[in-house]
Amino acid sequence: MFTGEFQHALDDKGRVIVPARLREELGDRFVITRGLDQCLFIYPPSEWARIEQKLKELPFTRSDARAFTRLFFSGAAELEVDKQGRILIPQNLREYAGIEKEVMFIGVSSRVEVWSEKAWRKYCSEANQRFEEVAEKLVDFEL
User: Fold this and answer.
1) C-alpha–C-alpha distance, residues 118 and 141, integer Å
2) Do 69 and 52 touch, CB atoms closer than 8 A?
């Protein structure tokens, strides 16, 4: 299970260190793709296979299903961690997420999200204001 929040910076070549705690579970190879809320999703191979299977089951006759799967899969890239623990996030994905220098890695249970630091801070600020209200609606057990 992925948890935690980690900040790193892109180097001049667009590479970034994957936090060691996340790298332990992700392994040396994983898939990155467009996520929701203008972030990127990283999946270990086993989870990617599960997501891929679920998306294959969507009805291709529905335009919204076709649009989502096109964007989700066309943005996907298999990445390999180098000897220094870095990955090169493809330019098109950096542009999609608005990543320029500071990068946030967020552990979210079965996936890792990658955010621009600025977008993550903005998202947190807005989400914190509704946190309790959302919890009341969605969580029906004691935390």
Assistant:
1) 33
2) no
Separation between Cα atoms, residue 143 and residue 141, nearest integer Å: 6
Structure tokens at 49: 């296979």
38: which DSSP letter? T
The CATH architecture that domain 5-138 belongs to is 3-Layer(aba) Sandwich (3.40)
Tell if the pTM clears 0.85, that is, is over it.
Answer: yes
Mean pLDDT of 81-108: 97
Distance (Å, rounded) from C-alpha 96 to C-alpha 73?
14
Q: Sketch the domain layout of the chain as residue ranges.
A: 5-138
Q: How many CA atoms lie within 13 Å of 47's alpha carbon, on the beta-carbon side?
A: 19
Q: What CA–CA distance (Å, rounded) separates 37 from 67?
A: 16
Under 8 Å CB-to-CB from 42, ≥6 apart: which residues? 26, 30, 31, 32, 79, 111, 112, 113, 114
